[in-house]
Amino acid sequence: MFRPFSYKGAAALVCLTAMAYMAFVIRLHLSQTTTELSPTNSRQESKPKHQKELGFIELSVCQDPTIDIIAIHGLDGHREHSWTAEDGTLWLRDLLPNDLPNARILSYGYDADTRSSTQTSTHTISRHAETFFASLEQRRRMHPRRPIIFIAHSLGGIILKKVCLVQNPLEPEAEDRKALGFSHSDSFKTDRGFRDISTSTLAVLFFGTPHSGANGVQLAEWMGRLLSVYMYTNNRVLSELDRDSPELEEIQRYYQSASEQLSTIFFYEEYETPILGGRTKLIVPRHLAVIQGDDRARVASMHADHCEIVKYRRMNDENYRKVADYLLELAGKAKVTVDNNWVREDGHRSIAKGESPPFQQTTLPKPLVPVSRYYVQRQEIYDFLTEKLLPSTLPEQQPRCVLHGLGGGGKTQAAAFWIEKNKEKFSQIIVVDSSSQQQIEEDLETAIRSIGPQYSKSTWKDAVAYLSGAKGWLLFFDNADEPDLQLDEYIPNSTDGVVLITTRNRECVAYAQDSHIQVEEMTEREAINLLHKASDVTPSSDDNSIAIVRELGMWALAITQAGAYISRTQRLDTYLATFRMHRDKLMREASLKGRNYKRSTYIAFDLSFGLLPKKAQELMKICAFLHHSSIPQALFERSVSSGFRVYTGSESYSLPDTVLTPIITRFRSAKLLLASFFPFFSPREQNSEAAIISGLEGILGSEWVVFSFQTLIDSIAQGSLMDAFTDSNGECFYNVHPLVQKYIQDLLEEGDQHRYALLAGQLLLGAIRPLRGESNIWHRQLSSHVDNLPLEVKLVNISHASAFAMVYKSTGNWNALQPLYEYCYSQLCTLLGPRHPDTVLAMNNLAATLGNRGQLEEAEKLKREVLALQMEILGPRHPDTVSAMNNLATTLLRRGQLEEAEKMMREVLTLQMEILGPRHPDTVSAMHNLATTVADCGQLEEAEKMVREVLTLQMEILGPRHPDTVLAMNNLAATLGNRGQLEEAEKLKREVLTLQMEILGPRHPDTVSAMNNLATTLLRRGQLEEAEKMRREVLTLQMEILGPRHPNTVSAMNNLATTLLRRGQLEEAEKMMREVLTLQMEILGPRHPNTVSAMNNLATTLLRRGQLEEAEKMMREVLTLQMEILGPRHPNTVSAMNNLATTLADRGQLEEAEKMRREVLTLRIEILGPRHHNTVLAMNNLAATLGHRGQLEEAEKLKREVLTLQMEILGPRHPDTVSAMNNLATTEMRSRVRQ
Question: Is the overall model pTM greater than 0.70, yes or no?
Answer without folding.
Answer: no
